[in-house]
Amino acid sequence: MLASRSWLSRPLHERSTRLFLGVLLASLAVVTLLNLALPAGHTLHVSTYTVTLLGKYLCYALLAVAVDLVWGYLGILSLGHGAFFALGGYAMGMYLMRQIGDRGVYGHPVLPDFMVFLDWQSLPWYWHGFDMAWFAFLMVLLAPGLLALVFGFLAFRSRVTGVYLSIITQALTFALMLAFFRNEMGFGGNNGLTDFKELLGVDLTDDATRLGLFLATGVALALGYLLCRAIVASKLGRVCVATRDAEARTRFLGYRVERFQLFVFVVSAMLAGVAGALYVPQVGIINPGEFSPIFSIEIVLWVALGGRGTLYGAVIGALLVNYAKTVFTGVMPDAWLFALGGLFVLVTVLLPRGIAGLLAYRRPRRAAPDPSTTPREASA
Amino acid sequence: MRMIRSLVQGLLCLVVVALAAPAAVAAPDDDGQALLEALDTRSYADKGQAIEALVASGDERTRRWLEALLDGKLQRHEDTGRFVVVLENRGRQWPVIDALTFAAAGEMSRRELDRIGINNALRGRLQSTLAVLDLRVDDVRARREAARELLGNVEAAMLAPLQALVADEADDEVKRLLEQAIAIHRLAQGDAAAVEGLAGSLNPEARAALSAAARSDDAALAEAASGALAGIEQKQKLNRGVETLYFGLSLGSVLVLAAIGLAITFGVMGVINMAHGELMMLGAYTTWGMQQLLPGQPGLALILSIPAGFLVAALAGVAIERSVIQFLKGRPLETLLATFGVSLILQQLVRTLISPLNRSVVSPEWMSGSLMINEGLSLTLNRLFVLGFALLVFAGLMLVMRRTRLGLEVRAVTQNRAMARSMGIRATRVDILTFALGAGVAGLAGVALSQLTNVGPNLGQNYIIDSFMVVVFGGVGNLWGTLVAGLSLGVINQVLEPWAGAVLAKILVLVFIILFIQKRPRGLFPQKGRAAEG
To answer: What is d(CA B467, CA B253) in angstroms, rounded to the nearest whole number?
Structure first.
């Protein structure tokens, strides 16, 4: 293991982190092997379609980790994390749009198809720079990060917490959804951005690209998990947990609570942005639907099902719910909302600590999540 | 013999009757025939005189004759000289009716018929003559309609009869309209004195005449006309202001209705009920169901839906409280998630059991239509009803919370649960009743909404974020705050709409609230004292 005592590598000495990373990396390797080594007809062969699907789940898992960071350790129930996810996705989408070049339906060398269709004469100012990969990737972090910074600065400074914060985060993503639905915004209106051709010069439809994206997502998830784990285990993380459980008391102890909250909130938003950026090239489209409040609430359900305040629980929850969604919507689409609604009710009433709580119950002493026991709600 | 004689007599009788019959009908119609014959001349001047003679005769059939003449369907048989009205002038054989009796007269070949032609001058004259004729009917509404038609269509020849009509007119509205119509005509002739008669009129014809006059070469006339135009502009601005306010209040009343039930469960009980919108949906569907039960009586169904919608939603509320919320006491964020799950289930339930498509609810007659304040401003009745209903519900809730034992107990439990219980208040029962009350009010909101929008499974979803915004903006636990916040948000939205567009206005309002919460985290009317510490 790494000998360095740097704060980022410290979680590598934890048993749960090693276990998680081990399982994740092993799964990546197995999927790659089954996809590449076995012929297409073989029963164990993993098709490229499945690889992309798994990549999509991993994006969701990273998003869930981001939400768990703020909800599980900071006590902030964000109902607007879908907005950060979508912003990251749009930044990536804009880069991919510019990569199309003159291969669009209208063949315009600079303007994306939807702008030609709307009879726009030139590129809006905020589309400049997105033809460069480094700039776009920077924006994947900066766009959600800045929004979180401004929003969080205002909200935490005036001590908006609890239910109020949940509701205004929901209003935030709702407002953004309405805004992105407008054609005048220059983000493709309700069709969004789609019809991508290539990423960094490689064909997006290529099987190798798809596998590469899947692996990149897996690595991003591993790194994101490590980062969150490091934050949580640091002194900063302990202040966060203290804030979650007794905000006023932490303040009286002399901590500038709002600064801790703001820092973690921004990190979480950036992680969500990265998840969105990895999601878009795999799914092939980004549209304002990702901003819808129901999607943001669904993310919270993944975390709640897996067990909040554990990080690995969020991953489990995201994978389980999305797998169930794929199965249900394929077999009996009408029943999916019943199942989802029922999950919301059952998890909150019967499984307040989620699946991770069940695991901890079986091994009561060792695997209990470290910022221990039931997180108390910050009072509204 | 006797039989033969009686037979002959009978036959004779028949012949006599048969001979007499046309004569008997024709006899009183010599006048009509004469009037129509006067029309059948080559000279258009003579025709004009004949039309005036027709009008002067006061014959009841004049109107139909003139209309037929205008349409070119008043024609004369070449051989018999009989006047007929052609019903359908297509093909070779045209079905006709007798112009005097209006009885069906079979078909005639178009070769046998001569049209009584008119020229453009006569056509204009006929049109205005017909309008004047309409002013003579007894029905006031029809007279008003006719007078409105005349605005901008007055011909010089009509002035005299119109002025006579104005003098005789009993209805003020008709009188005013006629005077305006005459003034428009005079203004077009360059009469500066006519400007006065049009000042303050919101009619587009009057405005058109004034702006034409304002561009005229006559300086005095132009000045007077532009002065009057400025006055009209002012009045219109005021009208638009009132209209915006009305739409804003109407939107606001919907928001208040949607939010006020939430204010009770959220503000008083501290419970986040994300299924609130779906309870509204249940209320709206109750209205629809009631109308299915009572077909043909939308009014009665609507009135019955008010208690029924309340009951259905309240019962659903009790079910939600007992099955979910009671287990999540003191965990507001978990309650939010669980009730969101309930809302998904309710939505899908309606989709599966009824239909994923929208259902339309009929508005009763006394709610459709609009209240006309003046020519530029009319208020739709259904919105007025909803506004009144919202205020009534608010007043009712205020009474329940302030004046009843339940309200007292609710406030006691809100402020200090343990103390209230030790005073003998059954807190669990109060919880159930409060939640039922909040849910029931959501049902009422749904009944009202069914009169404004389509009833569908997504009805609740569209309102849930808005209603949370209203509650948060107004200050949690404060019904007055909800009322003020709802109405003002509605008005702000409508004021922004003209220059920002509907979607952008909504975004701006959301951003405004988000920023407002930063400034005043506890809303417009924060709770004071111990309750605020929560």
So the answer is: 11
Q: How far are the Cα atoms of A95, A114, A140, A204, B316 from residue A199, in angstroms, in the given order?
A: 8, 20, 15, 6, 52
CA distance B324 to chain A (A): 7
Cβ–Cβ of B341/A167 closer than 8 Å? no
Residue A300 has pLDDT above 50, yes or no: yes
Residue ranges of chain B with per-residue pLDDT less than 70 = 1-29, 157, 200, 267-268, 375-376, 527-534
Across A185-237, the runs of DSSP E, i.e. the strands, are: 193-194, 198-199, 202-203
Q: Which two tokens stand for residue B423?
A: 């005073």
For residue B337, which residues of chain A lie inside 8 Å, CB to CB? 297, 300-301, 304, 344, 347-348
Is A167 in the B-facing interface, judged by CB distances under 8 Å?
A: yes
For residue A76, give the 3-state DSSP assignment.
coil
Q: Which of B178, B133, B172 is nearest to B151 (CA)?
A: B178
User: Which amino acid, B157?
Assistant: A
Whole-complex ipTM: 0.84
Pull the structure tokens for residue B240. 């638009």
List chain A domain ranges.
10-362
Asked if the C-beta of A300 comes within 8 angstroms of chain B's C-beta atoms, the answer is yes
Q: Please tell me the predicted confidence (pLDDT) of residue B315.
A: 95
Select from B328, B465, B518 the Cβ nearest to the Cβ of A348: B328
The answer to whether residue B355 neighbours chain A at the CB level (below 8 Å) is no
Tens of pLDDT, residues B366-413: 877 777 777 667 788 888 888 999 999 999 999 988 899 988 888 888
User: CB–CB of B337 and A301 under 8 A?
Assistant: yes
Contact B465 A172 (CB under 8 A): no
Say how far apart CA A119 and CA A121 lie, in whole Å. 6
Pick A297's closest partner by Cβ from B327, B332, B340. B340
Task: Indicate the fold that domain A10-362 takes in CATH.
Answer: ABC transporter involved in vitamin B12 uptake, BtuC (1.10.3470)
- Shortest Cα distance, chain A CAs vs residue B118, angstroms: 53
The pLDDT value given to residue A276: 93
| Distance (Å, whole) CA A96 – CA A282 | 12
Cβ <8 Å between A342 and B341 = yes
- Residue A379: is its pLDDT beyond 60? no
Closest CA to A150 of A290, A268, A266: A266
State how far the Cα of A140 lies from the Cα of A91, in Å rounded to an integer.
5
Go through chain A and tell me how many residues it has.
380
Query: How many CB pairs (< 8 A) connect A and B?
Result: 129
pLDDT in tens, A56-106: 999 999 999 999 999 989 888 899 899 999 999 999 999 988 888 777 777
- With beta carbons less than 8 A apart as the criterion, state whether B283 and B258 touch: no
Contact residues for B296 (Cβ-Cβ < 8 A; gap 6+): none
Q: Which residues of A touch B514 (CB under 8 A)?
A: 151, 154, 168, 171-172, 175
pLDDT at B23: 43
B167 in reach of chain A (CB within 8 A): no
In the predicted model, what is the mean pLDDT of chain A? 84
What is the C-alpha to C-alpha distance for residues A241 and A68, in angstroms, rounded to an integer? 12
- CB-based contact A171 B336, cutoff 8 Å: no
Q: What would the CATH number be for the domain defined by B242-501?
A: 1.10.3470
Span B224-272, pLDDT tens digits: 777 878 888 888 888 888 888 888 898 899 889 888 888 888 766 777 8
A interface mutation test: which of B328, B340, B342, B355 has the most A CBs within 10 A?
B340
| Per-residue pLDDT tens over the stretch A201-218 | 777 778 888 888 899 999
Two structure tokens written together for B224: 């007077």
